[in-house]
Amino acid sequence: MNKNFIRISAIIALVTTCGYAQEKDSTKVNQLQELVISDTKFAQSKEKSGKVITKISAEELQKKSGQSLATVLSSVAGVEINGNQSANGKNLGYYIRGGKNQQVLVLIDGNPVTDASGISFEYDLRLLPVDQVESIEVMKGAASTLYGTGAATAVINIILKKSSKKPLQANAYVNIGSNNTSTNSKYNGQDFNQGFSVNGTVKKVNYLASINSTESDGMSQIAALENQTNENDRFSRVNYMSKIGFKASEKLTLDFFGNYDVLKNDYDFSFDNTGFNDTDLNKSNTEQFRFGFSPKYKYNRGEFVINSSFTKLQRDYSEFNSWTSVIENSLYESRGINLDAFNKYKVTNDFFLVTGVNYQFYDMLSETPYAKITRKSTKFNMIDPYLTGVYTSKFGLNINAGARLNVHSEYGNQVVYNINPSFSFGKDVPVKLLASYSTAYVTPSLYQLYSEFGNTKLTPEKNATIEAGFEVGLLNKKLIFNAVAFHREQNNSFGFYFDNVTFDSYYINIEGINKAKGVETELSYTLNSKFKLNANYTFTQVDKNLDRLIPKHKANASVDYFASERLFFNVNYQYLDGRKDVYFDGNTFGTASVKLGSYQLVNALVKYELIKNRLSIFGAATNILNEDFTENIGYSTRGRNFRLGLNISL
User: Fold this and answer.
1) In the chain, N or C: fewer CB atoms in 10 Å?
2) What tens digit of pLDDT does each residue of 419-434 get?
3) 3-state SS class at 609
4) What region holds the TonB-dependent receptor plug domain (predicted)?
5) Residue 481, pLDDT above cutoff 90
6) Is the entire prediction scored with pTM above 0.70?
7) Using DSSP, how many helices (H) and how many strands (E) does the chain show?
């Protein structure tokens, strides 16, 4: 703990010696004038979009101070990030519209991010601190036309913080919290998060440098059985982010970025719901290095952009084998290259075309006690040309339609397409009707193809989604309500085969079509300048093969109260319906299912500006009712916890 206080003191001292700069920007964005980029890759009015895109702005993120990125996303309609209420080192599951990790594409500043050596090819949200995020867009539904493989149920577009227009701006923050389960009431500091950033613009050059550090202890990943005490699992993360941009002319800008992230944690398994593998010998270390270059050129009738990035990620594990009483070491390493060149051309005032070509390359290596896989035999690439047309009329009709040809080194050609019409009408009571039909594909991961459990005969999973809904503004647009119904079908789903007699195990395609359907609703009501209510509800129904850890009913609600210009209160509520989970049964050497109970969480936040736009403090309480619940069978979850934080801006 002394080490943390030394680090905190150093950060505060560094900021306070930077001197006073001008007051920070405080831009208020009208919700109805928000710009979104996810459904066209270029900024356009949210009203012109044919999708209900949830945008979590910088202002909204401030209202969620102290929360992880996974917890923030789990409050979005239709999104369940399983594991966000467990110990920090617990793996996360992404469940959207009946899909899971491999069907959710994460973008950071427009670049797809994945772990090419991971089972499900997904990005680990634990790697990114929410403190480095400016805003988030969540677009649900198949989006392979613009984004390629993996964008089958949703695209989570994360925008990192940008440089200030001032020559120098600095920010430092620190928050300390408890880390309890519902049966532990030690409210001393066990969860630390702190960071520092400097940024600004000097003539034609803008820059940003940021560092974040997170450490936690005091909680075991595995849930303790009766009369059992488990060892605590430590978690630590350090993130370095840098950006530099050059405005070569009024038309041409050049942007560079670099990220280095280190994540270390203890971990445990609960294969058979007994916690037998609770040990302090299991340790994991993850290092991620990302850099990229993004030139943008604007001309009279359009804009040309290149997003390019290189990612190298390494994971190593030291794991105690309870059968042999030996510590075994494993190494996984992956590399990824993304190059996406796309152009917006304004054909008329009402119609523009987005054309592009996307190149992606991935390889991996792994060394485990059971197999060694080299990069030479474990790689693939994709070259995808795509075209999208966007029509936005003055009388309310909007149409977004396009197609993409995926040329995969292992699977040949795959064609996906979408059509997304919408219509807005009414002035006193503005209403937008929307509908879409879109297809998507998901290719097997390198691990599913080439690992010791791999199957090179796997074929890509195919998806099709149809949705329809509306958005309406009432009471002079103070009340905004939307609802979307969806029906999704996936064919050739990926599964895992295990023979409990021969112990043969490998990945397979599940024959037949699996379906998911549901409704997502959102409500926003601004009572006056002091009170605002936000709520959402999601209903999801899936076929048997998809039914794991997906709640049929989920609801979120929050109330914002601005007591004054400097004092803010928030209370939020979350309800999750019962879910089905699966675990390994040591008696039968097979899997068994269990029904997890429903649960509800009540959280609160108070924030106060001691010095306007310069110094603020906050206090947060989570799971105030100290509810004892289960996210995953055999694993622990957080009980009542408290957090205090300080933010300094200069």
Assistant:
1) N
2) 999 999 877 778 999 9
3) strand
4) 46-154
5) yes
6) yes
7) 5, 34
